[in-house]
Amino acid sequence: MSAVLSSWNRLSGSLPGRLLVSGAVWLRAPYFLTAAPVIRELDGKHSRVRMAKWWLVHNHLGTVHAIASCNLAEYAMGVLAEAAVPPGHRWIPIGMDVRYLATAKSSVTADAQWATPPTFGPDKEDVTVEVAIRDDRGTEAVHASIHLRVSPRPPR
């Protein structure tokens, strides 16, 4: 089991625990600090992550910036991949297709799931994580398809 999933399973029962796990990911990848996403749900098949609407994620209109939403999508995909990919394998994003569907005037929640889960076999494989980002009314504001390459770790 991955360190992220193990920590989540131990600490997710309280808000401080969820913040601690989410913050540990921010420290590992500091570019997530301005978005400050908080993990709400996590297992090897799905992640749900929340990003508050605050001035560091605003655009010039005072709504959630499109690229802040992309950052949230990548965070949701990343924690899902960390939770699912076994220690003998590794993953790296190789592309991202994004559609901006609506203006987000509230905080947003990203739901990420595998389009088809990886097999974690002996060969590298390309897989996709679908991420739907919805505002507080449930309207999908952004949809991202993030493409990953999953491969066995090379021997040391």
Brief description of this entry?
With 156 residues, this protein is of the alpha+beta class.
Write up this protein.
The chain is α+β, with helices and mostly antiparallel strands. The protein is built from three helices and six strands. The chain has a six-stranded antiparallel sheet with strand order 1-2-4-5-6-3. Strand 1 (38-42) and strand 2 (46-51) form a beta hairpin. Helix 1 (3-11) packs antiparallel against helix 2 and helix 1 packs across helix 3. The longest helix has 19 residues, at 66-84. It is globular, with a radius of gyration of 15 Å. The model has no long low-confidence stretch (mean pLDDT 94).
Give the topology, please.
Blueprint: H1 3-11, H2 15-28, E1 38-42, E2 46-51, H3 66-84, E3 89-100, E4 108-114, E5 125-135, E6 140-152
Antiparallel strand pairs: 1-2, 2-4, 3-6, 4-5, 5-6
Helix pairs in contact: 1-2, 1-3
Looking at this protein, list some descriptive labels.
156 residues; globular; single chain; alpha+beta; 3 helices
Mind summarizing the main beta sheet? Answer: 6 strands, antiparallel
In the predicted model, the low-confidence regions spanning at least 5 consecutive residues are none
H-E string: HHEEHEEEE
The helix fraction, in percent, is 25-40%
Radius of gyration, in Å, reads: 15 Å
Q: Strand order, main sheet: write it out.
A: 1-2-4-5-6-3
Helix count equals 3
Distance between the termini: 20 Å
Shape: globular
